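tokens incoming
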């Protein structure tokens, strides 16, 4: 896997569009029945000068496991938005 300098997500390099991309990506992942289960800043990268936000490391993912659905969407899924707010506010 290629190393992308500056792709690590922080409150200083994430844009609102990228945060939105993470949220939409999470919804699409859930739509096919996959739950990441390990949503954290270390498992997120942004592609600089784009609106791309990408979830990484699905090694803990669960398939068709509704127990994780609510937690990921209502709590953990807010992480990208929180990072944008930390930088913008």
């Amino acid at each position: 896997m290629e190393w992308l300098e500056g792709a690590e997500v922080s409150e200083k390099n994430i844009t609102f569009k990228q945060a939105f991309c993470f949220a939409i990506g999470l919804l699409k992942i859930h739509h096919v029945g996959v739950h990441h289960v390990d949503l954290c800043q270390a498992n997120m990268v942004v592609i600089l000068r784009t609106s791309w936000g990408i979830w990484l490391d699905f090694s803990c993912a669960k398939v068709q496991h509704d127990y994780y659905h609510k937690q990921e969407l209502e709590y953990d899924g807010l992480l990208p938005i929180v990072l944008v707010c930390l930088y913008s506010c």
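note: The chain has a mean pLDDT of 79.
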